[in-house]
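The protein record filed here.
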Amino acid sequence: MDKTWYDALHPELEKPYFKKLKEFLVSESKSHTVYPATKDIYSWSRLTPLDKVKVVVIGQDPYHDVGQAHGLAFSVLPPTKPPPSLRNIFKQMATDFPSFTMPKTGDLTPLAQSGVLFLNSALTVRAHKANSHAGKGWEMLTAEALRVVAQREDSPGVVFLAWGLHAQKTCDSLKIDESKHLVLRSAHPSPLSAHRGFLGNGHFKRANEWIKERYGPEAEIDWTVLSR
C-alpha cells in the first residue's frame, strides 16, 4: 500500500474486522484461486496516491476470470480484451472527447497515474465466483478510503463518479459534502443498463469542466491518454 494511504488507513488495519479478513484470505488462498494477485490488491493506492486524487470511480467487485483483475476497478491488463462495461466506458469517453479513439487494451493505469482512483468496494474475489468476497470486511476498509478522500482538508474537492445503484448507495452512505465535491450519478456501464442513462451522461466532460474551475485549466484529466 502506498505510504499516503497507509498513513491514513493504518488505524483500520489494526481493527478486529481487518485481522479477521486477513485470516479469511489466507484460508481462502489455500483451497481456491483468488484474484487479483496479492501484489496487485493495493495497486490502486500506488498508482493514485491519496494527495493526487481528483476523480473517484467506484466499482463493486474485481473481475473473476483469468488474466483480468489487477487492482483497478473496470481495468484489465493486455492481452485481455476490454470487457463489455469497459467498452461502454470507452464509448462515452469518445462521445465526450471526439479525439478519443477506442484503445486496444483495457489497462486504465495511465488514468490512475493522472489522478483517477479506480476503487472497488471489495478488493479480492474467488476465481469464477462473482461477489464471493463481499461482506468479508473489504467494504469497511474501502468505505474508509473514500471517506478519507472526501474529508481531506487540503483538497479543492474531488469528482465522484457513481455509476449504478451500488456506487450511488456507497456515496450516499458517506454523506459527501456536495458543496465541496461533485457527485455525478447515472446508470451502470454494464450492457444491461448502459442504455438507461450511462451512455450520454457526459460525465467525463463534466468532470473536466468542474476540475478546471476548481484546480485550474492545467489540472484537467486527459482521458484521451488511453488512446495513444
Remarks:
- The chain has eight helices and six strands.
